[in-house]
């Protein structure tokens, strides 16, 4: 049955049929769902901090950091990486590990320093944004040495978020909150922010998850269970020790990076001399 009032096209072209929506595989959605779950956890930490439930706020940030380490690996394992997922992950990281820790610190005690406390929070959040933007740009750098994937340039945003909350961990462990606590935390917050945008090589640990020797599988499970039990039983002590230990490893990772870079630079002339290609003439 024809329509009583058919559509009229002045150019005489047939009407364009509407585009049908294609189905998206579930494996492409699962990593994004994990990222959104991490974002919800980070935003919930702000609510917990406003309600003065700092323990739950810190737990929410730690949970978001754990999920951040899962979504990327899950996407690569399921072959579900996408540009949309990468952009969503960057935005979630800025909120979870830039804005949320700064707000939690301000509600914890940086407000006692007045406007200086708020400026320190702004510096930390801005440094997190700059750190993430630089990370996205460096992914497309073709001149990176082969070992550069084992190091971050500056400490990553999740590690910075965990480390910057060290003053809150110490107070929950029983360290008294005195008048100078806010000003000391202010300087510490700015220092962690500057470490994120620095060029300091920080060991990434990505090579640990590629291959594990068969005889080390069971001991690794035991160590993971012990760490999970300690984190659940003594969360603030474990987080404090992990933060101090991570910051103490930065000089060692820098020395390791410089050693690898020196070996790479020394081997570069040898590789160039062994090449059979004739160099092109320089432009006039």
From TrEMBL:
Q: Which family does it belong to?
A: Belongs to the CDP-alcohol phosphatidyltransferase class-I family.
Q: Name its cellular compartments.
A: Membrane
Organism per entry: Azorhizobium oxalatiphilum
Q: What does the record give as the organism's lineage?
A: Bacteria, Pseudomonadati, Pseudomonadota, Alphaproteobacteria, Hyphomicrobiales
What are the record's GO terms for cellular component?
membrane
Kindly state a single biological-process term from the GO annotations of this entry: phospholipid biosynthetic process
Give the record's keywords alphabetically.
Lipid biosynthesis, Lipid metabolism, Membrane, Phospholipid biosynthesis, Phospholipid metabolism, Transferase, Transmembrane, Transmembrane helix
Q: Where is the CDP-alcohol phosphatidyltransferase C-terminal domain?
A: 215-251
| Lipid biosynthesis among keywords | yes
A Pfam family per the record: CDP-OH_P_transf
Q: Quote the Gene3D superfamilies the UniProt record gives.
A: 1.20.120.1760
Specify where it is mainly localized. Answer: membrane
> Per the UniProt record, which residue ranges are transmembrane?
28-50, 115-135, 147-169, 175-195, 216-232
The record's gene field reads: pssA
- Protein known as: CDP-diacylglycerol--serine O-phosphatidyltransferase
| Signal peptide positions on this chain | none
Membrane topology according to the record: Multi-pass membrane protein
MF terms from GO for this chain are:
phosphotransferase activity, for other substituted phosphate groups
User: Which superkingdom is the protein from?
Assistant: Bacteria
